Write the structure tokens for this entry.
Amino acid sequence: MKKLLTICLLAIASVLNVSAQGIYDFKVKNDLGQEVSLSDYKGKVLLIVNTATRCGFTPQYKELEALYEKYRSEGLEILDFPCNQFGQQAPGTIQEIHQFCTANFDIQFPQFDKIDVNGENAHPLYVWLKSQKGFGGFDVNDKRGKMMDDMLRKKDADYDKKSDIKWNFTKFLISRDGRVLKRYEPTDKMSDIENDISLAMPQ
């Protein structure tokens, strides 16, 4: 009984610790393996995205770069975290991934080292992001949304009840003061994301 109580208290403490953290408390490694504090991005509007280079959604890199070029001068930063957890669609080293992205999409926004976003090795940043905004569902009236829902439900009938990242190119929009404003699934329209970015821009 005492052991069970200890385990429960530790679990509660862990949840409280995650909720007490803010985005600027986290540190990540860039594409050169150097540690970067997200406090460097205080005052910026952030779009954080887990990416892959061999995914059906990979062309979104082009749209993301267009957003970056349009809103960078107003304070937008896009933080790119390659992840190989979904169909192993982000193979290779971070250097190889960066070379692919610059050669094919001429990306200018910062790219960070590969991470896990789900599971026991999930990066603490993503543990926190998921605790702030859970999965909101796919639009099953949209062809791609229906396809994703069908694919994931075959693997797990209750997949939609979990906050896990579902696939590559999930995005989180962060306000200038560090709040998680919205979570977007890979099938969400970039035009809707751009509208939300523009609303978050005024200081």
Residues 10-17 have pLDDT under 50 and may be disordered. The radius of gyration is 17 Å. Residues 2-20 form the longest helix (19 residues). The chain has six helices and six strands.
